[in-house]
Structures are given as structure tokens and as C-alpha cells.
Amino acid sequence: MQITTRNLADTALIAVAGRVDHQSAAELEKALAAVMVPPGDSPCAVVLDFSAVEYISSVGLRVLMIAARQLRSKAATFSVAALQPVVAEIFAISRFDRVLVVHPDLREALAQSSPAALLAWQAADPPPGNPTAP
Amino acid sequence: MKRVRFWGTRGSLPVALTAAGVRRKLIDALRAASGRRFASDAEVERYVDGLAFPAAGTYGGHTSCVEIDTGGPEFFLCDLGSGARPFGISAMARRAGGPPQRFHIFMSHLHWDHIMGLPFFVPAFIPGNHVVIYGSHRELESALRRQQEKPSFPVDFSIFGATMEFVHLDPGQPLEVAGVTVTTMLQRHSGDSYGYRFESQGRAVVYSTDSEHPLAQAEHTERFVEFFRGADVVIFDAMYSLADSISVKADWGHSSNVVGVELCQLAGARHLCLFHHEPVFDDQAIESVLAETRRLEEITRRDAPLRISAAYDGLEIEL
Lengths: 134, 319
Prior knowledge:
heterodimer; A: 5-stranded mixed β-sheet
């Protein structure tokens, strides 16, 4: 699993690639914790770009649930964007599509989370090959 | 071991099919027939057998009670939920006119829905029968006696004519019972619960209900994977959705279909049977969970296929 974190204005954009399973979920947990501490510097929003995630297990979904809960307690938002069809099915079967904010693509996720982050994302050079970039 | 037979499959509380529910099923069946004529009773039966399960059947029903048919003369049972009543009647009918019977009953825990069938368990009233109740809770005997004390129940435990014996099991210590190796394991549930693994003649059945799985604890997962390893059937508490089980219903002591699939896949089990159904779910809701679980297995499969069933009162799984 690969994780890349970018700061876009007041938003942390975390792009994840590969399988989020029993072996790798702790890495994602660390990446999420890193953008939430120290408390004073926490972002207003965290957006996960899941366009390159092939699979997520229950342990990975639990990591998302905890992050969403922690961010909510800090009055920050948390959303997941651009699920692949298989991952979207896992979200639906586990009912995570009902407890997490899920957007069809990254542009919409950023637009909903923070206009400043969307502008920063549009201004930046998108990573090569990212199908959800402008 | 020959088969697993389900007498009670509902979680927490018995659920009866209502008159409105029967009416709904009749309307659906008649609509599906669409003016069709049947030349014989056999043709009617073939038509009914071809209907979807929620239209022609019901998941029911009684609370937890599962029979392991070992093929031997002695009965093996998991839990004494309200399903113990029809099981007891069936067991007596199957051996009518024969010698007294021996019943081995393995208790997951002592919550109400898992013990409420004992006062109605006919074989316990028959002198000469021998009922052996196994469990790992220190309060095993006192809890079963207490539920029949006044004012909760009019007939005291002492009325039973059968020999009633209690056997304490130490988790992790295999015990030979009538040719079957029985191993118990501590599970996470309010007041603790215990899972059972039954092994005989190259077959293995796991009964794991009322068991919550803390997903962050790798050693917990490994322990269950080993307990489920290569099982022919895993009877699994799938009461909640994964999202509910780790949010609003965290620490309620139950699990989900998603975790059942993952553990069985990791363990190389052959058949996952969803069990302890949420009492607020109707037949269609349970059927949807079953279809989704089968789809999850399909899209996450990496090795041999895992068969998925949803338990219902009356289901038999051949081993």
C-alpha cells in the first residue's frame, strides 16, 4: 500500500493506493494520525483519495471510522472520494456508505470540504496519471 | 459427524411470523403464479419449491439451538434457546419406544435467549434420560436453576425426572465426548461467551455465537482464525452490519457478516453459516444480507470458494 499526503490550504488530502487490509491498515492509521496532531494545527478537513485502492478490509474500515469520529470532535470534516466499484460494494455491504461521507470524485469531495482547498488543488500540477485531477 | 440441524436461529428474542407476514407471502406467491393452472399436487409443490425463500419460507423463529448429528446414538446440542422445545419433541419422536437417551448440551453462555428453552425441554422430564450440560461459566447450574424459581416460572428445576449433570469445561482443553473432540474458546461478550469446535472422523464444525471481534487486536484475530481453521461449517454470529458493530452497537457483544467472511477466508473454512439474526429483520432483510454476503465473498475471494448460508429453523447442512 502507498500513501501520499498533501496539504491543500486548510485541507489534508491523503491519496491511498493498493490494498488496505489487516497487514497495512496500521500505516493508514499512522498517516491519518499525523495530519491530526498537534491538535492546534489540525486541518479543517481531511479528504481520502481512494481512486487507487483495490480492496479494504474490516480493519481498514475501522481506521476510517475512528478518524471520522476524531475529526468530528474537532469540528473538522472527513470524506472519502473516488471509490473503485469493488471498494464501493464493500462500503455498501458493510453499511459504511451510510456512516461516512463518500463522494464520487475528488473534485466534488474538495468542493464540499473547502473551496480554498479546491482552488489550491486546481492551481497545483496534478500528479501524472491521476484520473480525478482537473 | 453427519449433519448440522438448526432448531433456533434468531438472536436475542424469538420472532414469530405474523398474520400480515403470511398474507404478504401468499399475495407474492399468487402474483408470481400469474393465473397458472396446476394439474397435480406435485406440480403445486414444484412451483412452491421454485419460489424465492422469503416468499415460500421464513427464517423464523426460535432463539439459539443447534443440533450436531454425530451419527451416533447420543444427542449433541448447542445452547438451550427456545428452539430446544421443538428439538426435544423431535428427539423423543425419533427414538420413540427405544431405551433412555443421553443428551450432551454445550452452552455458549447464560443469557436469557440461550437458556429459555430448558423449562420446555421434554427429554429432561423423562426418568431414565441423562442430560449432561457443559459450559465454562461458574454460574452454569445456578443460572439454569434460577430461571425456574418462583415467581419467574411455576415449575421448579427439581421437577426434572432425567438425571441432570453439569460439567465445567476449561477453555482450550479438548474433551472427548462420545467419540467427538470438543474444544472451547473464550469469546468477547458481556459476561463472557464461549465458542465450540467439534471434531470427529475428519470433520469439524464450529459454533461461535454472541461473539464480538475487536478488529484492532491482531492476536484476537489469529486466535479465531486458528479456531476456525479448515472447518467444514462455521456457525457465526452475524447480527449486525460491520458499521453498526463498531459504532452505535460497539461493545454490544455481536459481530457482522463482513467479519465472518474475512475470518473464514483467512482460516480456509468451507462453509459460513450466518446465525443469530437481528430480531428486527424480516425475511427479506435477512435474504438481502445473505445475497450481499455471497457477493462480498465473490469479490474478495483469493482461494477456494467459501459457501455462504443464512441459518433458518429447520435448515440441515450435510457434512
